[in-house]
Design brief:
The chain has a single domain, classed as Sandwich (Jelly Rolls). The protein has one helix and 26 strands. The protein has one helix spanning 265-276; strands spanning 7-11, 14-18, 22-28, 39-47, 57-62, 65-73, 76-80, 85-88, 93-97, 102-108, 115-123, 134-138, 145-148, 151-157, 159-160, 163-164, 173-180, 186-189, 194-202, 204-207, 214-217, 221-224, 229-234, 240-248, 255-257, 260-262. The strands form six sheets. A seven-stranded antiparallel β-sheet has the order 1-22-19-24-17-14-13, with no helix packed on it. Strands 2-3-4-11-6-9-12 form a seven-stranded antiparallel β-sheet, with no helix packed on it. The protein has a four-stranded antiparallel β-sheet with strand order 5-10-7-8, with no helix packed on it. β2 (14-18) and β3 form a beta hairpin. The radius of gyration is 18 Å and the shape is globular. It binds fe (iii) ion (FE). Residues 57, 60, 62, 67, 104, 106 line the site of fe (iii) ion.
Length: 281
Amino acid sequence: MEQVRKIIQIVQGMPTSDGAGVKLKRILGGSELNQLDPFLLLDEFKNDNPDDYAAGFPDHPHRGFETLTYLVAGSFTHRDSKGHEGHLTAGSVQWMTAGRGIIHSEMPEQTDGLAWGYQLWLNLPAKLKMTEPGYQDLSPDQLPVVEKNGSRVKVLAGEYAGVRSPGRSFIPFTYLDLRLEPGATLSLPSPGNQNAFIYVIEGKVKTGPESEPSYVKSGHLGVLGEGDKVDLRPGDDKPTHLLFASAQKLNEPIVRGGPFVMNTLGELKQAFYDYQTGRLG
Ligand code: FE
């Protein structure tokens, strides 16, 4: 019989700033929850005041993992050392495989209004850390949406109900934007060899077995424990909006330093050396 996953940890995230001074909330990847194999980081930026985002994220390097940026509102330009250029609009996903090394900038195109989005870092297995860098731009009309029984599921990565995101991943990985009307119930597969979490954007989510539910409020991330599937429903009579992510555990050592995530200290030192000597990107 399938086992429903229960919430085993709830984290709130910490306000911080990154890039050239963009205010954001580090939900995963900080001291509260440093990582959830293979997830290394989840940042939320949601700023109305241009002073809090206008400086953007000028040129900086990455090696050893992938970044997925999901823009909910606003517009950003991406440029990188491999010649990729992308214009992110509201509802789009930018998927960058840093692999053996890339230098990129992520700058707002807008000069006022709301800039709102999420950046998720997904680790690469040891054998793929030095893979060729890649870039995938997924425009809003390329991302499938499944609507049924009061639920609206936008497939950012992976698959839901037989519908696939065009994004290409190296490891089994599902990333969904979910909206649930009061009374709706959604059941998502999340195999036992995968780690999973929800991040509640709006409303209150009820999850876990009906006999022993947990509630996760907006602005909080819930880590899901052992099991094979995840059951989600609104926790009260209001609609909810949340992100769901599930991905295969790598079970490999993680040695991270700033923008590089490797398996050994030697590899991390090499990454800094390569960057300093112009051999990265
Ligand atoms: Fe970056």
